[in-house]
Amino acid sequence: MTMEPQGTDGQKSGGRRTAASVKPKDPKADLIRTAFMEVGVPLGLYYGLREVGLGQWLSLLVSGAVPLAQLVYRMLTEGRVATVTLFTLSVMASGTAITLLTGDVRLLLARESYLTGLLGLWMIGTLLAKRPFMFTTMIKMLPEETARTWHANWDNHARFRNVMRWMSVAWGAAFLIDSAARIVMAYTLPVDLVPVLSVILLIGMLMTVVKISKSYGRRMMAELT
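and the corresponding structure tokens:
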């Protein structure tokens, strides 16, 4: 299939391109890029600022501004406001505003727990929607043929629908546990240890729930075929 822009014949021949030349988005690459900008950069910035002698509160505040800036940039460049982006931005901005008023370092450390906790509740809350979190999220990353199979399974197999719902509950529960653990760490551990331990906790939680989801999903799909 050939895609041709509007214009003169000369412009068409110079601007002609095939659909195959347009590279599709790579979800894994997007995930790595997002993780680097929203986790790796803030973490490195915090410890870099601490190394040059900046205080804990100000270092946390400055490093925490990076994900906020990323969200604002995304909203401006995409030309639309996604619900999840707006939700995340509002939670992070509210947490930052509270800590600016109180000047409490540990409250600033616990700020991310609000986000993960609310995300967990939202994932579980999607059970009340037409499609649960796990289905609507995964369907966007699947090849077209596999996505059609998923839609057919959703329409025709009650077991498939139940599995999607239970997996959504599992992801929501994992984020709620992550939120509770972040609060405990923020108020019991040395301040300078918490940022790196929070990242380790997040990675460990995601790896565990992804592995369990994949194993459970493969078993479920094998039973449906």
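(Above: one complete record from the training split.) The beta strands are 2-3, 17-18.
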